[in-house]
Design brief:
Elements: H1 2-15, H2 17-21, E1 24-28, E2 34-41, E3 44-48, H3 55-64, E4 72-76, E5 87-89, E6 120-124, E7 131-135, E8 143-148, E9 151-154, H4 162-171
């Protein structure tokens, strides 16, 4: 899998360097470092689907925003409001060292399985300590929520595996 991603990345560097330069990024509905991600391409601002969009893609998006971020988080668009207009990317798979989201593996421009309420937001340069809790169950099991920017937010299950569950358990104070 890693070989395929690196090969795809190298192909994009060789074949579409001009395409990567055509993209500009901005965040909307938040601050200069956090908000719903939008990409300017083809004379319009486009949104990005949250499916497949991981921390590596968030770091690339922060780089596109001109933020040299060592920490980045993927945030659901419900925090920053739904977007409108075309959805440019779906299922982005980045290595993390790309300079543009155009260099990441994706389904193709304007190819996605997303609705406007499923856009992605990013938060760059997260300096605050995140707090976790579970609700709707017991003290040890339930829906995971993370306190960010003064609001409790739910965590999407897409891409959430065993490693992420272990981190969440440590955040909740469970060491095993």
């Amino acid at each position: 899998m890693r070989y395929r991603v690196v090969t795809t990345y190298l192909m994009y560097l060789l074949l579409v360097p001009s395409l990567a330069q055509e993209f500009r990024a901005r965040v909307v509905g938040g601050t200069a470092e956090a908000g719903r991600l939008e990409i300017f391409y083809n004379e319009t601002w486009n949104t990005v689907c949250r499916y497949g969009f991981g921390q590596e893609a968030a770091l690339v998006a922060c780089r596109m925003l001109g933020i040299n971020s060592t920490t980045a988080a993927v945030v659901g668009s419900d925090k920053y409001g739904p977007g409108s207009g075309p959805i440019l990317f779906g299922y982005l798979q980045c290595v993390g060292d790309e300079t543009s989201l155009a260099q990441c593996e994706h389904l193709g421009l304007y190819t996605h399985f997303c609705e406007h309420w499923q856009h992605v937001g990013v938060a760059c340069n997260i300096m605050q300590q995140l707090t976790a809790r579970v609700v709707g169950g017991t003290a040890e099991a339930g829906r995971l929520e993370i306190l960010y920017d003064g609001t409790w937010n739910t965590v999407c299950r897409d891409g959430f595996g065993q490693e992420e569950a272990l981190v969440a358990c440590r955040m909740l104070g469970f060491n095993r």
